Amino acid sequence: MHAQDLVVQGTVISAVDNFPVIGATIVENGNNTNGTITDFDGKFTLNVASGSSITVSFVGFKTVTLKAESMMNIVLNEDSEVLEEVVVTGYTTQRKADLTGAVSVVSMDEISKQNENNPMKALQGRVPGMNITADGNPSGSTTIRIRGIGTLNNNDPLYIIDGVPTKGGMHELNGNDIESIQVLKDAASASIYGSRAANGVIIVTTKKGKQGQIKVNFDASVSASMYTNKMEVLNAREYGQAMWQAYVNDGQDPNTNALGYSYNWGYDQNGIPVLHGISMSRFLDSANTVPSADTDWFDEISRTGVIQQYNLSVSNGSEKGSSYFSLGYYKNNGIIKTSDFERFSARMNSDYNLIENILTIGEHFTVNRTSEVVAPGGFLQNVLQANPSLPVYTTEGEYAGPVGGYPDRENPVARLERNSDTKYYYWRMFGDAYINLNLFKGFNVRSTFGIDYSQKQQRIFTYPITEGNVANDKNAVEAKQEHWMRWMWNAVATYNFEKGKHRGDAMIGVELNNEDNTWFSGYKEDFSILNPDFMWPDAGVGTAQAYGSGDGYSLVSFFGKFNYTFDDKYLASLTVRRDGSSRFGKNNRFATFPSVSLGWRMSQEEFMKDIEWLDDLKVRASWGQTGNQEISNTARYTLYVPNYGVTESGGQSYGTSYDIEGTNGGKTLQSGFKRNQLGNDDIKWETTTQTNIGIDFSLFNQQVYGSLDWFYKKTTDILVQMAGIASMGEGTTQWINAGEMENKGFEFNIGHRKTFDNGFKYDFNANISTYRNKITALPITVAANGTFGGNGVESVIGHANGSQVGYVADGIFKSQEEVDNHAVQEGAGVGRIRWRDLDGNGVINEKDQQWIYDPTPAFSYGLNMYFEYKDFDFTMFWQGVQGVDIISDLKKETDLWSGLNIGFLNKGKRLLDAWTPYNSSSDIPALTRSDVNNEKRVSTYFVENGSFLKLRNIQLGYNLPKSISQKFKVDRLRLYLSAQNVLTITSKEFTGVDPENPNYGYPIPMNLTFGINVGF
Questions:
Q1: Is the pLDDT of residue 156 over 90?
Q2: HEC-encoded secondary structure of 582-595
Q3: What Cα–Cα distance (Å) separates residue 265 from each residue in 244, 551, 776, 928?
């Protein structure tokens, strides 16, 4: 027995939240009878022998052994193997250590720091193999692609929220209610959802009450949004200078312009035109009401946006059940004036143990009301093109517009005001109720009924355009309603067993899904009073029209799964699902989707036990099939439409009414029907077959961790719409199975974390992924028409979806000698773009085109860095894309004076550096009013390197010490400052504004945020 001559005093806290660990066990090594537990504040006192060590343990945390000292501050890290038991993988949960599929688990702590309205947007760069694109629109809507483009139809993943499937927008739900997100990427993990899992599955689990006292949490933040990457456009003087250059380059007199510009110019000693001065008419119209101006239209239509977000939640739990209730409010006034997004949300999750450990009932339910004013379509292009010489207002205070020779573009400020009342209101009710029966140990039956109901109401206003030569006195309103009702029911039985070295679980289930969609609208013109209170269809006296339609589909599914583990070393999983969809004809309504996966935890083998730095090493492989039915609900039918009284473009009537009785319009005519589509009862499921090989590892006491995956994914029987030949008559478009596509790639992520005795800790996590996409089969006519790539010049087969063919821009002709020595090129001249003669026949024609654009990036990556010291924490997250092509439509308006077929539109400032005899080193073609060289053709001139690295988020947080926060009767009080989209590093070749949003999408702003998190 050792002498008890050392008194150890210390505190045990959690590495996750720095809270004290209550009830942790502290035992002297070598004397198991000498121990104690921590108190309510995580403190303990223990007498031990001098020179001995102590062991500290608590459920859910890694046990640590430390040398005994008089004063000790002990930090416990979570035990990953315990936590891995709650990974949701489809109708059930599974230990992550036992997973054999490619599943990414997302840290919600990191996601919440980005303060995004849409939690999916915050996943950018965090999940290898998951590509997320979004512009800066206030709603936060996104496009998500998992492991590339898998089909020529809908590529959106399937969301499973608390067991209920949906493809609706996540921005309509409150991300603050989310407890966890898992991304199922390969077929083995996703095939349990068979019919809709070909594009990947994202499983979302919302929060529930935890056992213990009542928890109240309040989070609030306010952000300022700023326009950081404005388009650089010409001011009035620069515009006049560029227009003068275009005139004189073409040998025309610039003073013949009809915009009010006057030039003092001449020639130098070399006979080269020289501009001496520019003047402008005081007024641009004959009535002297439109003064000349120097308007910065981007300043006029933009503002500093403000984002407000508030969330309140109350939760509680006991042995009898748990409850979680939350309210949320989000408002984003976008950086484009009048655009905004607003959401009110409420959630109630609860469960009750009616019969202890036998019968449980529960529900998850949320209701959300969103509203949004969307910026008008193509608005930023409209702003770029607005001529700076035009003012916002006339001398009479009315909106000014184009006059004289100015092009017919609406005043952007007026256009925003006319659009400001066109707001939609969207209600979404989403949730489920379930009953769970645990008849005996290991056996469980659960039945769930869920709904996803959405209703959208909107009035689309047409107000008179009053300005200039675009004036139009038409006024009208369309009142529109849309309804989507989706419901599901399933029953799932599971059995878990464990005996000796054997552990496994089996599951069987059945599920029904149904969707019904309806929409209708009423349109009316000519209102006496032009405001939203009056403008309902009943109040109009002009043309009236009514529209409406509806469709739906049903899905029935049977599925089963079996997981088996032997000795925690050898893992196997088998899944099969059979789906039947009403979208397919009776001949091919059902399809079966199997998968199999194997795993080997090599680190558990005896021959690896002596490798002390290796914690865990698992090799896994999987093969499986998933399906896709994302086509029109009426794809299998032959469709006819009445088209009564329709007149289409050019005045040609394709209406189906006919005066068969010769009454010459004396009565209402009977309508016939026009065929729009041929039916096909033989169309069947698209099938994606995927193979995955992966490695998971953990090293140096879990300080280093990561995974590596290789995948090959092939989609067959792709559903495409094929147009019939002319001899088949009209309406011969038909859905068929005729395409194939493949994707293959790698995904790698690695992390390193460490905690020091002084309380400093860090956690770095990096990921990188790459894939290659290729269309391998399509009908010849579809492959060659340019719909999926090739521009109608080459067949897209063998190339990535969306790849383009075009001419190769080979610099600028710098001298007449270069022009004379080049191939015959129509429009060639000094200062013009030179096209490369690819076939060497001495003539530039359509044969001088090659593949010039591939939308697939070389790789995508992300890096998250987290630091913590005592009460401070600091986070920095970088995300990037490397080696991706973009096609800059913007460049047609920043580099070419005649890039569009409409003259006198404003341009970008790059034009000021265009080729001239005194600027002969420029690679921007000389300005010209007539594009005789067809320089706006598809060519490498507009293909740029869109690589970028963005500092997505940087945040500094401070947790008030509990000694201070408890004075305010709160358990936790955290303050933070953060910034999003702070810095963008681009390729030197990139000439645009933002490679992530290269053309005219809603600008991606920089957000500066202050927030507070309070827990009671």
A1: no
A2: CCCCCCCCEEEEEE
A3: 9, 67, 60, 18
